[in-house]
Prior knowledge:
single chain; 2-enoyl-CoA Hydratase, Chain A, domain 1; four-stranded mixed β-sheet; 17% strand; 2 domains; six-stranded mixed β-sheet; alpha/beta
Amino acid sequence: MNFKNILVKKNSYLAQITINRPKKLNALNKATIEELHSAFKEIEEDKTIKVIVLIGSGEKAFVAGADISEFAHFSVEEGGKLARIGQEMLFNFVENLSTPVIAAINGFALGGGLELAMACHFRIASVNAKMGLPEVSLGVIPGYGGTQRLPQLVGKGKAMEMIMTAGMITADEAKDYGLVNHVTSQEELLPLAEKIASKIARNSSVAISAAIRAVNANFEDGVNGFNVEIDEFGDSFGTDDFKEGTTAFLEKRKPKFN
Ligand code: COA
């Protein structure tokens, strides 16, 4: 795959996607969103890849938001289309991938950058990371799922305050809020992501993808997550991974999943 705005690296079961526009603090322009979609899609189809890590290039930013220069002149219709297409093509797409995606927040994660991190399955951050949804300071609101996912992750009150003040929180505050799971040094961020990825990769990827569907069902309108869990649980019994996992346990050996 040939990309201009992102880098993709695969190493055994792990894929790393780096958003690579450091001079623009990795701001998400249309081309970057399209490239991210293609990369995630291709990796999802590669069954040797068990975990994806998403990071920004350079030491300053994960992603400093949607590219303001691209939408500053947009009309009402164009604004709506920007949000709709972006949500479908990238943010909802990432959230619903069967391959786990870890956001490694290595600096500013603002606006669309924090929204992208929140669409990932979970987040870790380096100490220098700063997170926020500054859209109302630009006269607009978060449009890539921020008003929905931030309250899911940190609760309504904290989300309202973050959105209304347009302020930034530190990595430690984000951990306190439950927005990121771990905070580490800049040097240790990727090694930590890799360590977590290695734990994930030992498990059944078929079961993990079923678990992602069940967890996500809780946040879907009109869907009963408990029923989805029951169905996914039942379906697990028909998989090779279930046979291998339970047999390995009874034979007191480590399972060998595909
Ligand atoms: N869209 C487009 N370009 C952006 C951008 C964005 N969201 N965020 C940063 N950039 C660009 C800057 O315009 C600048 O480009 P230039 O060198 O061609 O002028 C470059 O990235 C470096 O940013 P700069 O502002 O000089 O860095 P800084 O360290 O002084 O400030 C931030 C860092 C993150 C505080 C500041 O860039 C910022 O506020 N960015 C916008 C954040 C935002 O509102 N995001 C939500 C968008 S919906």
